[in-house]
Structures are given as C-alpha cells and as structure tokens.
Amino acid sequence: MLTMDVKFTPIELNIMYLLSDGLPHEIDEILSVLEDPQTLRSALRMAVSNLRKKLALRGEMILCEFKHRKTHYRLVRKLTSPYDGLK
What we know:
Layout: H1 10-19, E1 25-26, H2 27-33, H3 41-56, E2 60-67, E3 70-77
Antiparallel strand pairs: 1-3, 2-3
C-alpha cells in the first residue's frame, strides 16, 4: 500500500508543479521557477534527491535524462504490479 501523508518543502512543491506535465525540463528551467534565483545546482540536486525519496512512497519518481548534452528531469508514475508488497 502506498503512503500519501508526505510533507513537501516549498522548493519541492515548486519542482513538482513544474514537472507535473510529465515533460522533460532542463535544470536551468527548474532553477528559474524556484523562489531564490541564486539557488545553486548542488542545492537543486539535493532537493531532487529528497523529493525522489518522498515520491517513491507515492509510487512516483523523477527520471534524469540526457538530451542534446543537457540534463533534464521528468516526473513519472510507476506501474503497479499484483506482486507489489509480496516477499
């Protein structure tokens, strides 16, 4: 069973809102929607890492794709299996 009671930070919510369309977004595009325009790429990587852990509880994940020599992030929903939760 998936847990839905997950608390997100404002930065994580902004990232999720941008990625909610399911399309790949470049790092610079993600940085542009964050509250602090001076946010470093390392801070973004940390926020995405924390967000991945929280989204895993909801059956979602953030993929990292490389297109045209640039890094893109995409929010996707995992497919469920009738064998999920079996040991």
